[in-house]
Known about the structure:
- 94% of the residues lie in helices and 0% in strands.
- By secondary structure, it is mainly α.
Amino acid sequence: MQFFALLTEAGQNQDLITVVPWTLIATLCNLGIQIFLIKKFLFKPVREILAKRQAKADEDIRAAETAKAEADSIKSEYEQNMLEAREKAESILDNAQKMANAQSDDILRQANEAAVAIKNKAERDIALEKRKAVNEIKDEIGSMAMEIAGKVIEREIKEEDHAKLIDEFIQNMGGES
């Protein structure tokens, strides 16, 4: 009896394991509908979101590359301007230094010329004054010599003798000066 009970039980268990075609078709249809719904309502929006995110990321990358290129351009322009400004400043300083040196040389040259001119004028003035003084002294000495000679000799001196004495005296005085 046990054996029959086992067989009937096994028969009932076999009913659970058997494939029923309508159940299989219904299950497959259910699976297909679920896949369709998942694709329609889950995968499609997720793909769209991913596509939008990818497009935004690509756009951000392009914008960053553009901004970087612009920044590099501005940087190179800035560096070029700084280089030009340095060169211009150096040029201005060099020109100013050259002008200062030229003005200094010009002022020194003018001062030297003025000093030489003043010296030459002073020498001419001194020579002129010396001649005037010598002539005045000659005249005074001549008149004094005449007076002294007239008193010492107490005689009348002729004009020839007088001129001769004056010339001798002047020559003696001229040799000493």
